[in-house]
Amino acid sequence: MKSAATRNLLAVDIGGSFTDVVLESEGHRYTVKVLTTPKAPEEGVMSGISEILTQASLPADAVSFFILGTTLATNALIERKGAKIALMATEGFRDILEIGHENRYAQYDIAQDKPPPLVPRHLRFGVPQRMNVNGEILLDIDEASVRTIIRKLQQEQVQSVAIAFLHSYANPAHEQRVRDLILSEIPSMYVTLSSEVCPEVREYERTSTACANAYVQPVVAGYLGRLQERLVEVGLTCPFYLMTSGGSITTVELGSQQPVKLIESGPAGGAILARQIAEQCGERKVLSFDMGGTTAKICFIDNYQPELSRSFEVGRMYRFLKGSGIPVRIPVIEMVEIGAGGGSIASVDSLGRLQVGPESAVSEPGPACFGKSGLRATVTDADCVTGMLDPHRFASGKVQLDVDLAMQAIQRDVAEPLQLSVVEGAMAIQEIVAENMANAARVHAMELGKTVEDYAMIAFGGAAPLHAAHLAAKLGISRVIVPCAASVGSALGFLWAPVAWQSLRSKHQRLDNFDSEAINRLLAQMQTQAMEAVQHAAPSDSKLETRRIAYMRYVGQGHEIAVDLPQGELSAESVPKLKDHFEKNYHALYGRVIPHLMLEVMSWSVTVSTIQNKQPVATMTATGVNANAVSSRKLFEPISSQWVQALVYARESLEPGSIIEGPALVGEEQTTTVVPLGFQARVNSINCLVIERKSRES
Questions:
Q1: How high is the mean pLDDT of the chain?
Q2: What is the number of H-type helices and E-type strands within the chain?
Q3: How many CB atoms lie within 10 A of CB 577?
Q4: How many percent of the chain have pLDDT more than 70?
Q5: How far is it, in rounded angstroms, from Cα 171 to Cα 182?
Q6: CATH code for residues 8-77+222-262
């Protein structure tokens, strides 16, 4: 990588509807939004890069480094458009993908369907071998059996194989040997080891994660290879990095080997942006609201740190219920994601109920107002009909919105079945999508033990500034912050993400029989692995920090909590400190501790990351001045249920201290911020729009 002093930084986020591109060059920021090209995502990426380099008058070889976030892995899993894969499991355990936890996610629904496994049964093979929980070999591999399976893989034309043996997290030797045997016979085969992508206890999640990685690896690796070739062709030969689900960046090589860790890369970039804006604005409690063309993402950020998780589910198929998706166990920023975006399709069901999403028109065929082949009413059509959007300025003018087509779609799909006027049908769509998002935020807050009214909202993504104040009012949130370049927020967040790598291992230890020497050796190995991964990607002058965590529980419990380890090597004297740290964390979560019950550690993690520079805190001028409007536009005002003439302001002309009274619209190249009646917007010192509900007295 070039020196960190070279400031030509390029980031691209491929969304379901739009591909966002951000370039920071010597203190200047350029942004571009282009329609995503689903059949060949690299086409949209290259189009956006070409446009932004032209805008900045920069040659491709002047770019210092390039960061990409992509929904390709997510879409391949959800749409079941991955590779033909096989699973090799310990003999007798090949059906774990279907057995799962042997529970029901909808207890009273006798017709519920489980998500079909990624690997059909005839491609799941049992291998005679066995390790015990300590990694000791109980039964050697039957290599003749493995070679027989390899011949079947060739006959079935399998592209990718997942290998998940019992207790391989404790000793990966058998998985590694089988990989060697496969590659000696089929060098082109993609092989995923569960001991590499998820070296933890819990057999079902580990196997599911390995299969998910194997399923998307040929798709993602092929796409990244094609994109790299295209980048080289245009002269963009700088280092190429990928955003991970955990909010850090990594190399293309590591991302191609473990693409399952890229599944939530775009939303993670948005959470990093929100964290940065929260720190700049001095907001210690923030609700990140990211609404694009396909989905809306909500994330809680406390003390400038997003909530983190070690697992999540992809493609929940039953009303977003936990357990109805594919479990994936990787480091991920904790958030809730629902099918509520600008392209979310509205319809009236057989019971006369208005439904909005999760199905989306995405970029092809697109909302009806795009004038392409899309005919169904969407949220963007509703925004167009109610006057929120400037038909001539949508997506920097790349898409000319047809209001008549939007009205026709809403009339046919919503207004006529519900016996409403067209504008009432549009308002109903906006109300339903806002309530869907509010309900998701309330449930997420309840699951995390948070009070949503205590938080400020940071809104970004192409559609979020349009709906943020409406959502905030439903949630009882009094302050909404819309940063500059909000429409490309996730891509902008990539530029603020640290280079990081988490090494994680399962090794059981009871505190009453703690083997400090063994754990110190394990932590040293993990530290070396994480350090090498980060140093390979980070600038040579980067400062690094390390965080070590033990995942602990009371003996016999089913779940662990994260406990930070003390600095330095562990010893017998460390045990009381670990116990004390655990009890403080446990009490904070559950309001009590359990005396006289022994503790155990199930897993350990070491995360090495670059240290980000602190940003100055933004200020708000004590006295402001009313901003100058550039025009006005008819806007349907939902509180009074009537059309009003709303003033329109140009975002680029607003100075710090500017005041805007609602109802008003703040337009910019790629999005519009709605300031409703009863709200006031002010511009702070870093040009964020801060929208607040006015008190009744005022």
A1: 89
A2: 17, 36
A3: 13
A4: 97
A5: 19
A6: 3.30.420.40
For residue 365, say if its preceding peptide bond is cis, omega within 30 degrees of 0.
yes
The predicted-structure confidence for 36-46, as pLDDT tens digits, reads as follows 887 788 899 99
User: Residue 90 and residue 171: Cα distance in Å, rounded?
Assistant: 14
Instruction: Centre a 10 Å sphere on the Cβ of residue 649 and count the other Cβ atoms it contains.
Output: 24
* CATH architecture for segment(s) 265-340+432-496: 2-Layer Sandwich (3.30)
CATH number of the structural domain 83-217: 3.40.50
3-class secondary structure for 220-282?
Answer: HHHHHHHHHHHHHHCCCCCCEEEECCCCCEEEHHHHHHCHHHHCCHHHHHHHHHHHHHHHHHC
Residue 321, pLDDT score: 63
The pLDDT assigned to 681 comes to 94
pLDDT at residue number 186: 96
- Say which DSSP state 447 is in: H
pLDDT at 1: 38
The conformational region for residue 212 under phi > 0 = left, psi -120 to 50 = alpha, else beta, is alpha
pLDDT (mean) for 242-267: 88
What's the pLDDT score for residue 318? 61
Q: Can you list the alpha helix ranges (DSSP code H) found in 488-628?
A: 489-496, 516-537, 574-590
If pLDDT is split at 50, 70 and 90, which confidence band does 183 have? very high
Bond preceding residue 367 cis, omega within 30 of 0 = no
Tell me the percentage of the chain whose pLDDT exceeds 90: 57
Domain ranges of the chain: 8-77+222-262, 83-217, 265-340+432-496, 344-430, 500-610, 629-692
- Structure confidence at residue 632 (pLDDT): 92
On the question of a common fold for 83-217 and 265-340+432-496, the answer reads no
Residue 155 buriedness (CB in 10 A; 0-12 / 13-18 / 19+): exposed
Q: Specify the DSSP element, H or E, that contains 45.
A: helix 41-56
Of 489, 363, 485, nearest to 69 by C-alpha is: 489
Provide the 8-state DSSP code for 632.
E
Which residue's structure tokens are 């997510």?
Answer: 74
Helix, strand, coil percentages, rounded to 5, for the chain: 35, 25, 35
Closest CA to 137 of 174, 169, 110, 96: 174
Q: Residue 337 has what DSSP assignment?
A: E
* pLDDT score at 317: 62
Mutual angle of helices 489-496 and 265-281, in 10-degree steps: 70
Choice among 314-323, 422-431, 516-525, 526-535 with the minimum mean pLDDT: 314-323
CA distance 377 to 370: 11
- What is d(CA 301, CA 473) in angstroms, rounded to the nearest whole number? 19
The token pair that represents 16 in the structure block:
């379901």
